[in-house]
Amino acid sequence: FGLVKASLGHIQKSGAQIETAILLRPRAGDFTYSDEEMETILADVEAMISCHVDRLVFGCLDTDNRLDKVRWRQFQKAVCGRCAITFHRAIDLSPCPLEDVMFAATNGASRILTSGQQLTAMHGQGLLTCMCEMLLSASLQHNCTIMPGAGVSASNAKMLSSLPGVQWIH
Question: For the CA atoms of 47, 51, 55, 60, what is the dihedral angle to 10 degrees?
């Protein structure tokens, strides 16, 4: 399950027998974080890992809406392989989504949650397919997969899960 602003008590008491993925996002709005917000996120990494979460979900952009490589590396270093990482839909705002997907995929993200830069994943099928094929052609599909998300329903889940290399939908 995924929770926004999950409490430590809830996570500790959940006893979930399924993968626990926690979104780390200190506020609503954009994905460009101040130094203070990043300190909070990094503290949250330690707290969530101490609760034995399986996966942390995070995304960060710079002022040009590109993946913020400095902040991403800080996050990745804090996680230090102690749990899996998903880069979330912040990627949908990037003017260079394929480059940013490749960076995330080669720098610790094992999933990238995206709608293909559209309101729904169904409308973003074209870019989703390009992202999936790019990871496959770079032989990265074993390290990182695209996870289509936004507007996923029973009527379109089968189609979205048939995209090349897709293992998860959201």
Answer: -10
Phi/psi of residue 96, each to 5°?
-130, 65
Residue 70 half-sphere exposure toward CB, CA atoms < 13 A: 7
CB 76 within 8 A of CB 58: no
For helices 69-79 and 97-105, angle between their N-to-C axes, nearest 10 degrees: 20
- Our CA angle for 22, 141, 44, nearest 5°, is 20
Neighbour tally for 104: CB within 10 Å: 24
| Residues 53 and 17: beta-carbon distance below 8 Å | no
Question: In 51-86, where does DSSP find H-type helix?
Answer: 69-79
Cα separation, 157 vs 169, whole angstroms:
7
Tokens encoding 119: 């309101």
Quick one: pLDDT at residue 99?
98
Q: Is the distance from CB of 117 to CB of 92 less than 8 angstroms?
A: yes
Comparing 4-18, 36-50, 76-90, 154-168, the range with the smallest average pLDDT is: 4-18
pLDDT 10s digits, 24-58: 999 999 999 999 999 999 999 999 999 999 999 99
0.70 exceeded by pTM: yes
pLDDT of residue 142: 84
What's the first-to-final CA gap in the chain, in angstroms? 10
